[in-house]
């Protein structure tokens, strides 16, 4: 069937054009007399947009930083015992090991908090959003009908902590990749996106226009 907007060829029964993303049927087209009830139950109506998932960077993605901080604390404790300059030094220089141990911990906590505040992600039944920034907020959105593929990237420690990155590839030539960084349960999020894309396309197969 041909798209009434751009003229691209789409599989029969497609609700949206795989090339331009607009409705593949003319506005005057009527719905089938006896719609399949299972299709209606498979997802929300095409004209209703609902939230499916929201997320932010997870502290679990910083497991390597926590391990390094623990090693740093252990080194400071060892040096304080071995080379501590006597009782008089304890009264005069106690703040040195405290500062050496506390400042990196405060910096790590501030970095994790700023990361969580400056990044947020939202998946709806029609679009995927990425918002970046604290004082100045920039939001990118991706129509699910344009999604081509999704991949999950996890390092060794990220697999242990259950965090990772999801990359969403689309047919948008100006901004083809949207990254969901340092999120919890990336494989689960990937499956949510996959299911939402399938429901958005109405169960039709995606055909890339070359």
Descriptive report:
The protein is an alpha+beta fold. The chain has three domains: 1-31; 50-58 and 120-200, Pleckstrin-homology domain (PH domain)/Phosphotyrosine-binding domain (PTB) (PH-domain like, Roll), CATH 2.30.29.30; 61-115. The protein is built from six helices and seven strands, in the order αβαααββββαββα. It has helices at 37-41, 63-82, 86-93, 95-118, 156-161, 186-200; strands at 51-55, 119-124, 127-132, 138-143, 147-153, 163-170, 177-184. The strands form two sheets. A four-stranded antiparallel sheet has the order 1-2-3-4. A hairpin with a 6-residue loop joins β6 and β7 (177-184). α2 (63-82) packs antiparallel against α4. Residues 27-33 and 204-210 have low confidence and may be disordered.
Number of helical elements: 6
- Low-confidence blocks of residues: 27-33, 204-210
Q: What portion of residues is helical?
A: 25-40%
> What is CATH's topology name of the largest domain?
PH-domain like
Indicate how many domains the architecture comprises.
3
Basic shape: elongated
Major sheet characteristics? 4 strands, antiparallel
Tell how many strands the DSSP assignment holds: 7
CATH architecture name of the largest domain: Roll
Looking at how many chains there are and whether they match, the oligomeric state comes to single chain
Helix vs. strand class:
alpha+beta
Radius of gyration: 25 Å
- Just give the CATH class of the largest domain: Mainly Beta
Strand proportion? 15-25%
CATH superfamily of the largest domain: Pleckstrin-homology domain (PH domain)/Phosphotyrosine-binding domain (PTB)
The largest beta-sheet arranges its strands as 1-2-3-4
